[in-house]
Amino acid sequence: MRRKLLTSLLLLPVFCHAQNLPSLLLNRNINSTFSITAYDPQAKEWGIAVATNNIYVGNSTCYITPGIGAFSCIAETEPQYAINGFQQLAQGKTIQEAILFTKQSDMDADTRQVSGIDSSGHVFAFTGSSLKYWKGSAADLSGKYYVVMGNQLAPNVLHDMADAFEHSEGTLAERLLKSLIAGENAGGQISGKQSAALLVKGTKNEWFNQIDLRVDHSRDPFGDLQRLLNYHYGRITLNQAFYAIEQRNKERGETLLKKAIVQTNGWYGIYPKIAKAWLYLGQEQKAIAVIKAAIKGEPAWKQNLSAFYCLYYDTYISKLYPVKEFTVIDWNNAISMMIDLNRLSESITLAGEITAKYPASSYTWYLEAKACLKMRNPDAAKTANNQALKLDPENADAIKLQKEINNPEKRSDI
Question: Which domains does the chain have, with CATH numbers?
Fold first, then answer.
């Protein structure tokens, strides 16, 4: 009986690749993991990048409170290090004191790795004494404004992570991911890979300073995480392109748009905005090419086609989502796009046709009013908008437009 039990234990690691031998013997959820915790003093951002051979690593290993600090707990994770740690830092304790506060009463500290960084970038980390019995390397390495640590690693992982972070350029998020990928390229975890996460938070209020990207289960978590970060910055670049175009700097707008296209490759949900940007630049054929690529990648994308009614001279597009299938919402999408493209006469004509067909459509009346106001015809705008509000007194866009109509100095079209 003992011989069979021993045989079973020896075979378990072969069949359970997502867990390592120590976790099976100790009946704990221990998984080989490596991470980097860092601070960017210029951007006032704190960040953590982490990877493991189990699912959803970002769920229990990354903790950041902007303006106070950041904590990462891996191996046998324990969120209390972060909960207590933030409280200790807020009370003026050092990062070392904040971590040791929990460690001194933690009966399982020998199975953990914890790193932390305070509001000024001071760092501290420890590696539990039992991790040296695990297969592979287990250690932590600190530098200026960063800490790398991990367990069950190939020999040079932490060194290469530190080197990549110190010598890389870009945003904190980009540098963290470069460090994590450098660790993987150095051999990473000897027991495999399955998930990765990237968390960056700053004291500034802009939404793009807050990054929370997770790849919870993948054969290539590093590549997928890189793709998500590209998408994140691609959306920002695309917004910058629109701003440049609106400021009549079309050359810069097109340059940024091309960059955004590369960054968001494969993200079909953002392709409508890319096609719209090409229309803003007056390049309809490029907009059509984007639409065709989107539909090829995701056939359900055709639900966006009504907004591009102005391109229905292209037979490929018009056949995919025929006009006869349009609902009043589809027509409103078409009119709205025409207004955005400043094709005001066309939009007013089309709105008139649609209100004749759907006289109870409050939103169509509002769109007609919006186009009329942009055409410097406030009387016609007021008439149409009054009808929109009569049909739906809660039409929020019509309510806002009414204020513009009644207060010419606040009109967005002037």
Answer: 21-219 (3.60.20.10), 326-414 (1.25.40.10)
